[in-house]
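Cross-check.
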Amino acid sequence: MCGGIATLGVAFAEFVGYFIPSLSTQSYIFQLNVLGSSYSLSTGQLVAVGSILILSGVNYFGIKTGAIVQNIFTFLRIAAIAAFVILGLTLGKKAGITDFGQIFSVETGLSFDTLMSLFGLALIAVLWTYDGWYSPTCTAEEIKKPERNLPLSLILGTLGITLIYLLMNLVYIMALPIDKMKGVTRIGELASTQLFGPTATHFFSAAIMISIFG
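Predicted model, tokenized:
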């Protein structure tokens, strides 16, 4: 869990740095080279640590306080995702796949073994998005009626994340040609720019930042 929390903290700092470059992970406070090893500290790392401390402080005040904050951020992220999907599918300027049959056509010229290897490699990032499906089990002792609510949260949570993931990727592949996605790590920003123009990218980045923080 510690590694995952640290990763999310750094990801949050990356998007803070998008809006405030002086707080990015590329803004170094110091850099040292000692015996061939490099050590550095960036303002982005301090932002990451600060975000973890803030949320830890919120949870320190009790379950109810933590639940309220969690519910607020959950509502904001779902609302942002819903707006992006609905507006992207209906009003956005699309330059990607419009024939749904193309989504399932594979013409790579690669062998089956190679294709499966690449598919498995791509799934690393995909499975990361599902990583929180088991989170309710970590707080099972604090859940009311766990015999009912725990299985329900696991099932509905997994189905909900699956639906969100599929819808978001549907918007991406309709917004952008496949060749434009190659090597792009922040695909959502590129898709939002194509769909709604450069101004929308700021809103999308803010939505991702809120989602990571919450």
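The longest helix spans residues 146-175. The chain has two domains: 1-60, 76-213. Passed to J.P. for a second look.
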